[in-house]
Design brief:
7-stranded mixed β-sheet, 26% helix, 138 residues, alpha/beta, AB_hydrolase_fold, single chain, Rossmann fold, Epoxide hydrolase
Length: 138
Amino acid sequence: MEEIDHKFVEVNGLKLHIAEIGSGFSPVVVFLHGFPEIWYSWRYQMIAVGKAGYRAIAPDFRGYGLSDQPTQPEKTTLLDLVSDLLALLDALSISKVFIQSSEIFMRESLSFGKKEGWVESQVILFLNESAVTMQVKV
């Protein structure tokens, strides 16, 4: 996986690990892992998306993979993960993304995101039983 670059971004007091491939000026696809997985679950999709001309980013959520563990992990909520994602996108100066996730995380945050106005549109793809893709404006 030598084509995939790795770095750390400070968000909400934690150092989050991200893996990425593709040009910084291309449309961005963010891949969100399930639980208890890490970015590595999306490695093949990231390479394919990068070769198709997109910038692919896959973070490790707080407490997973190489990302910092919060001081009280048992108190982490879905809104903490959403907040981390928005802070990460802000830190990377990304204003619009496509999000791909295979977990309930996206379905739950979709309703929150629509209410808050940061979900512009959604496309549901049934690649497996619960894959969801959203276009997000930050």
